[in-house]
Amino acid sequence: xxxxxxxxxxxxxxxxxxxxxxxxxxxxxxxxxxxxxxxxxxxxxxxxxxxxxxxxxxxxxxxxxxxxxxxxxxxxxxxxxxxxxxxxxxxxxxxxxxxxxxxxxxxxxxxxxxxxxxxxxxxxxxxxxxxxxxxxxxxxxxxxxxxxxxxxxxxxxxxxxxxxxxxxxxxxxxxxxxxxxxxxxxxxxxxxxxxxxxxxxxxxxxxxxxxxxxxxxxxxxxxxxxxxxxxxxxxxxxxxxxxxxxxxxxxxxxxxxxxxxxxxxxxxxxxxxxxxxxxxxxxxxxxxxxxxxxxxxxxxxxxxxxxxxxxxxxxxxxxxxxxxxxxxxxxxxxxxxxxxxxxxxxxxxxxxxxxxxxxxxxxxxxxxxxxxxxxxxxxxxxxxxxxxxxxxxxxxxxxxxxxxxxxxxxxxxxxxxxxxxxxxxxxxxxxxxxxxxxxxxxxxxxxxxxxxxxxxxxxxxxxxxxxxxxxxxxxxxxxxxxxxxxxxxxxxxxxxxxxxxxxxxxxxxxxxxxxxxxxxxxxxxxxxxxxxxxxxxxxxxxxxxxxxxxxxxxxxxxxxxxxxxxxxxxxxxxxxxxxxxxxxxxxxxxxxxxxxxxxxxxxxxxxxxxxxxxxxxxxxxxxxxxxxxxxxxxxxxxxxxxxxxxxxxxxxxxxxxxxx
Length: 660
Ligand code: PRX
Known about the structure:
binds adenosine-5'-monophosphate-propyl ester; alpha/beta; 21% strand; 7-stranded mixed sheet; globular; 19 helices
């Protein structure tokens, strides 16, 4: 990196000549050539890449089918298998002995598996699933922590054409139940416990609880991986230890060749209304973009050690742990633990120990590690040898320029490009991002669309706004890895992503954005709906409100908003009207704790509000609508400057502004 050009506004960080020369996409001209290719022949462009990166059993002859828009189909007459592409193909190419996964457990134990071993393990698991009656098209819920078994379980589902739905280990029994019911999963794969930050936490017990909550009759079997050996409840008619299920299973399993549109997975994510939605992804288009973005954005090469710190319970873990790097025959880290255990130098130590060359994490983690390093020199990245790093990535939320600069300087030694990748569960892979050998970077900007992705900023009528003017982020053309539908709710899919306001023609991301007047670079300005981003986790305010009002003995009414937070990006702030007089002091604290515990039970600990404020009422218009915009000001501790004349009860704002 040549560093910042001080005369330029905004500050541009140029990739070094060596980075440009060695990159898969080398130089701005190469980028523009790809964009022009896509512009000139959109289908031809994606077809070329799909042939180049994916091994097809039956080659496709059709590329994009728009007949039933917005239910687009890609490569529909082609057949393939995702697990074949990620495993067998690498073994066939002579990479059988190459390390596929370096697993580091919470306590530091390291286990490595080669491509041949991972293939054998996946096949045995696939055969075990078949023996439990799982067939092509069935759903399997995976509720397990970061592990080789977790990756192998996903690959095993893909191998037999079962659709996996991974549920993050931090979700509660209730959330798990909802997902089991919605997917009608036949089998649940879990572990006795998970281990994080030196603590053992239950998994199987939560599955047991979920299955007692009703609506889970589809679930015939629970396969349990032994992680800690803790004693767990065992229902012999339903539960099977994974070791027993695997015993005697063959190491080979013929892949089930599926059509490109076959649902590879469902992943639940929060929207602005209702329950989390099951985002349905395809096999062919999804795998193409997973592989392509890993190749171009991360510039993955044969000798890289790639580390994406996301959990496999989120889309980032799907695309950049289970599928992308493996499809390219890469070597990757899978980490069970947390960044702060045994101390906040864990990430840096692991980069040093495993000679990680590409590191991909979330701004929240960076911000919390900055804080930790400021308080304790011993965990500062400078104490570690991070010279193996050549590329850094950021994902999940906007990265503030100060955190970007620190990441660049202290982790990347001033030499590593940072790819600030904007994308979503629904997009399957990167949408707007720098490419390391192409894009001069600006801290806080995700820069330019990935080649072939037609992103734009529009006004409420769908008309593009001039650069320099904020608006709504949309994607103008369908792309291969896009969401196919919301599982079981096609109408909601249409309404959420292809709204009538844009005549059903534009994909609505749900984010606001602005393009730099000079460079055209995109900066994401935050969600334009009632979705919060807390530590890079997406949370619907309505979901949290429903969880609060479901505490019927206490809560009369609740409204939830976000407020900016130095570490977590946004923090959840809940305003609550109780069915009893407004509490204060210790009593208020006790009730707030009770409500937090309740939310933890309903959704999971990640949804616990940071602030809970009690009021006799909520600010409402005369027609009874809660004025969230005012609540956002109150949550920030700002004086309310907006017009409150339409407010039924202006005095309430002062009351809600008071901490107890
Ligand atoms: O608001 C955007 C934010 O995260 C949302 C997507 O969340 P999720 O589906 O959970 O996927 C997260 C991992 C891809 C987006 O709508 N977001 C994601 N990446 C960025 C971002 N905001 C700003 N900059 C990013 N790089």
